[in-house]
Write a structure and sequence with these properties.
Number of strands: 8
Structural class: alpha+beta
Distance between the termini: 33 Å
Helix content: 40-55%
Strand content: 15-25%
Number of domains: 2
């Protein structure tokens, strides 16, 4: 088990303890809650709920399940661990998330959701391609041919479509050309 997952597991354990305590408080005050729920007037119902003594039940439930003060520290620990696991460190600038098209073709952890193709043009002139050729697109992306296909284009700023294939593959379709090499994004 990774070291980073231990604080998260501890936080969830602490959160479970807090939920258990809260459930015990609710059961202890069930009669009062049912009495309040039966009131038709909203103001009286609210006053009834406000009058329910939750501190006595909370204290007894907490002492039965956790040491004194553990409920508060468990809640704080759970909140801190979950916040630290989900959000960036304090003071770190939250990077602006790029558009799905900008992430298209990156490794799976960065792959844009919901984008199956992008359309753009080749930046400059493309003479030909073969395995290992790098093709720079007008949107700034650079794709490398990964299969053994070959093609001659001799074209300037030609329109291209990069499509997602099966099993994380991508194909670069050059306008006017019949074959589409398999590519991977490198930039």
């Amino acid at each position: 088990m990774k070291k980073k997952s231990l604080p998260i597991l501890a936080a969830f354990g602490a959160a479970f303890a807090v939920i258990t305590i809260t459930a015990n408080v609710a059961v202890a005050n069930e009669a009062g809650i049912l009495k309040c729920r039966a009131l038709a007037d909203a103001g009286k119902r609210l006053a009834c709920y406000d009058a329910i003594d939750v501190t006595a039940a909370a204290g007894s439930a907490a002492s039965a399940k956790l040491p004194v003060g553990a409920a508060t520290s468990a809640t704080a620990a759970a909140t801190a661990a979950v916040t630290n696991a989900v959000s960036p460190a304090a003071g770190a600038a939250s990077p602006r998330s790029p558009s799905p098209a900008a992430e298209f073709g990156l490794p799976p952890k960065q792959t844009a959701v919901g984008v199956d193709r992008i359309e753009t043009t080749i930046k400059g002139r493309l003479e030909s391609w073969q395995q290992g050729s790098r093709i720079r697109l007008a949107n700034g992306q650079v794709w490398q041919v990964t299969d053994d296909s070959r093609g001659v284009c001799e074209c300037d700023n030609r329109k291209v479509v990069v499509t997602r294939g099966a099993f994380g593959t991508y194909f670069l379709e050059v306008e006017g050309k019949g074959n589409a090499p398999r590519v991977k994004r490198i930039e």
